[in-house]
Amino acid sequence: MNKKIISIGCDHAAYNLKLKVIQHLKEKGWEVLDVGTDSCDSCDYPVFAQAVCQNIQNGVTELGILICGTGIGMSMAANKHRGIRAAACSDTFSARLTRLHNNANVLCFGERVVGMGLALDLVDNFIETEFEGGKHQKRVDMITAIEEYEAKKA
């Protein structure tokens, strides 16, 4: 990835943390596409998950970050999109390994679950880790095959 661009979205439960993550990413040299939300007013997280995922699907960005209260709802919504491998992580080992072994392209976590320091560590582990490939590529291909099978059934 030559130009470091990442898409980020959140719901009302994670607005404040999203602002800090954006600042952190910019300090690390990333261009950040913020798809919202833009306040702490109640909103629906699937809207923002879809916007981040569409940026990835359309080749605007290769990676995305989604933040909500727990990270779980965002990961569920994101994983409904073809070509998206979203992982809800609340520890740095998982954030690193989901890139290394699963070639995840969306990191999800929750403001109500992780503190500021851990959130930034999750982000760093995710963005600084490259997919290892090898035996793991076969497994990622199997996930893609399931996706294609399900799309044909629809």
Distance between the first and last residues' Cα: 33 Å
Structural class: alpha/beta
User: Could you tell me the radius of gyration in angstroms?
Assistant: 15 Å
The general outline is globular
How much helix, percentage-wise, in residues? Answer: 40-55%
Main β sheet profile: 5 strands, parallel
In the predicted model, the low-confidence regions spanning at least 5 consecutive residues are none
User: How much strand content do the residues show?
Assistant: 15-25%
What's the total number of strands?
5
Structure annotation, total helices: 6
Quick overview:
The chain is built from 6 helices and 5 strands, in the order βαβαβαβαβαα.
What are the key terms here?
154 residues; alpha/beta; 5-stranded parallel sheet; globular
What does this molecule look like?
This protein is an alpha/beta fold and 154 residues long. The protein has six helices and five strands; from the N terminus they run E-H-E-H-E-H-E-H-E-H-H. It has helices at residues 15-27, 45-57, 72-78, 92-100, 116-127, 135-153, and strands at 5-10, 31-34, 63-68, 86-88, 106-110. A five-stranded parallel sheet has the order 2-1-3-5-4, with helices on both faces. Strand 4 (86-88), helix 4 and strand 5 (106-110) form a beta-alpha-beta unit. Helix 1 packs across helix 5 (116-127), helix 2 (45-57) crosses helix 3 and helix 4 (92-100) runs parallel beside helix 5 (116-127). The longest helix is centred in the C-terminal third of the chain and has 19 residues, at 135-153. It is globular. The N and C termini lie far apart (33 Å). The mean pLDDT is 96.
